[in-house]
Amino acid sequence: MSGLPPSPLLALRGIGKSFLGVRVLDGVDLQVRPGEVHAVVGENGAGKSTLMKVVSGVHQPDEGTVEFAGAPRTFRTPREAQQAGIGTVHQELTLLPERTVAENVWLGREPLRRGLVDRRAMLSHTARLLASIGEGSLPPGTRVGRLGVAQQQVVEIVKALALDARLLVMDEPTAALADHEVDQLYALVRRLQEHGIGVLYVSHRLKEVFDLSSRITVLKDGRAVATLDTADTGADQLVRHMVGRELSSYYPDLARPQELGPVRLTVRCAGNRKLRGIDLRLRAGEVLGVGGLQGSGRSALARALFGAAPFSTGHVSVDGAPVRLRSPRAAMRAGIAYVSEDRKGEGIVAEQSVLDNALLAARAVRAVHPGRGGRGARTARVRELLAAVDLRAAGEDQEIRYLSGGNQQKAVLARWLALAPRILLFDEPTRGIDVGAKSAIHDLVRRLARDGAAVLMVSSELPELLGMSDRVIVMRDGRIAGELAAGATEEDVIALAVGTVGEAAG
Amino acid sequence: MSAAPSLPARRTPPGVFVALVLTLAIGWLVVTLDGGRLFSLPTTVSLLHVAAGLGLVAVGQTLVIVGGSLDLSVAYVVSLSTLVAAETMAGDDGALLPAICLALAASATIGLVNGLLVTTARINPFIATVGVGLLLKGYLDNGYDGPAGKTAPSLVQGLGYQRVGPVPLSFLLLLAVAAAAWFVLTRTRFGHHLIAVGGDPEVARLSGVRGTRVLVTAHVLCALCAGLAGVYLASRLGAGAPRVGTEGLYDLESIAAVVLGGTALAGGRGGVVGTVGGVLLLASIDAVFNQLEVDVFFSR
């Protein structure tokens, strides 16, 4: 694109930001011209969201300058950035479902007439804004809760535009959208572009990035490693910029062929709201890694197998016998255990003791008062398991919230081992866990597989995914995009995940 | 854009009005079979009086509940207000205005305390307002054994017993207060912001709404409404009554009326119109049971 005016709307120079001593952004330079869609890509944790939050005034940079419309600016709050003309469309929607479109758009700035809210003006302004971006068919008096996600996204954008925004920051705007809704969003972004509005567009999805942007900045480990003209860039080139680091950690040995047992879990043609056409077989003694981007369905797969968000179609069998995984309880009866990625929210009961946490599942499926001896035996068994997972705590009566993430995770693991599960589902088993405890968890996972369990492990950390798994399946858009044997590279996984190769492409 | 934007279609009236009509119809049938009359003048007047007292409290309660909070101290505020009003009047018409002002000011102060505890001190509204209520209970139990003070005769004759046809003046007062609250909720920035804070405080904050100020104001308005209910009850009883609020179950019944009226207990959705319906429903059930001489726990 040659017709672009040279003076940038937004110029970031040498932006650095640390949290608790961890350097999240390091000397990032980035410019957005008026009417340009500038995409920012990078792996999970590369610093994209932090960078967006610096631009929209949520975070303040430790070093570097933000220049907007030719003048250096410091935004201390989101409100200050908004007033300067930077609108942000957050990844999660920030709308009130019970209020109308117009009420949401003007919240906090309701137009007044003789001291009272001018509802007519509110509605007509909103209608005008909607019409200006080609969404005039959306009635401004509708309750937002009655709109689809794509239309809510439109409302969110209009809310940002109502501030006379000249720069729009969009953080993963398509995360919640269906395919045809994505097309609508494309059209909308292009119309904004025609109005001379600059767009800073964060996305995991390379297809969108290539469809929409004029330039792409690649973030890796907090640095802007490249800024590329989209027209001159290929997908392979981009992927190469995004990955590429040495595999430094140690992982336990993979399963030898003779260690693999019979097929434990079979899923055929299964699906639900987030998943389609899932076919997979999981063998005893095997660790099956599940890769993919956030929202690709990898967590949905684990949750479906555990009955937390069950499959609505398809067949599942465990050890050859058909089962219906309608609830976590049903899954537990079938011998399935699940360690959630959200340890604080779904894993631990923070205010209860280590022992109570570890006993939770055993208590849930067995009788609450198992008679004389039974309770003592059960507790003794869990104590053994706590020792077996090498849990370090001041005592088993200690409230679990005071433990480190790694020890919390070991308690959660002990909880499931108390049920002697045959199938274990791990979702991000080492998220937020320090390096030492990480390899302890890795060893445990492998030991469980060696003892005959079938393990499915979701991970967004590519080294972990590749280092731990005997096989890897990669999810994309709720489907299994492809399967990789041991020895695959990070590039292979990314390529499947973003859709530059694979059978589900297009 | 094809047509000029129209005002949003009125939402369907809350189901509480359907329930109200059904209750009255079934109640009338049962009472008639029982040999009584539900819609006689005395019964109707009494029903509307019950509705007026409860309604004033419930309209205030609507404001805090829509804002995502709750006020469980209203029953004690009602009692306190009857006492402040009646004792200040001491049977003197001349002291009428200052007495009402004093009762309302005392109520508003309690509302302010509630609001600050809930917002600035970040105490759960349930705990905060029960706590304030218990403080008031201590004061009332300690200071009073029974009725005290004497309501000004003109107030008794006016607000207490004056009627327009079958409709007591007090019920008209309720309608006026409800209309004012409806207007505030739908036509002022404060109202819009209050509903937003109740819907999602974080969304409201990101949109530039000052949540603390909004919620404190709602608590003051709620307490003012309870204070007004106290003034009304003083006019009915002729004196201040230290336990009228709790014996009338104004705390729980006001919340019941609000919820029956379709306001979400979590906040962010609802309004005053439904609350008035909820109040009439509760008052009707009360009247039916009175006619049948059934003694249930909430019939007075």
Automatic annotation (TrEMBL), chain B:
Cellular-component GO terms for this entry: plasma membrane
Q: Localized where?
A: Cell membrane
Membrane topology (UniProt): Multi-pass membrane protein
> Main site of residence?
membrane
InterPro entries in alphabetical order: ABC_transp_permease
Point out the coiled-coil segments of this chain. none
Molecular-function annotations in GO: transmembrane transporter activity
Quick check: keyword Transit peptide in the entry?
A: no
Transmembrane segments annotated in the record for this chain? 12-33, 45-66, 96-116, 123-140, 167-185, 214-235
Key words, A-Z: Cell membrane, Membrane, Transmembrane, Transmembrane helix
Which Pfam families does this one have? BPD_transp_2
The identity of this protein, by name, is Ribose/xylose/arabinose/galactoside ABC-type transport system
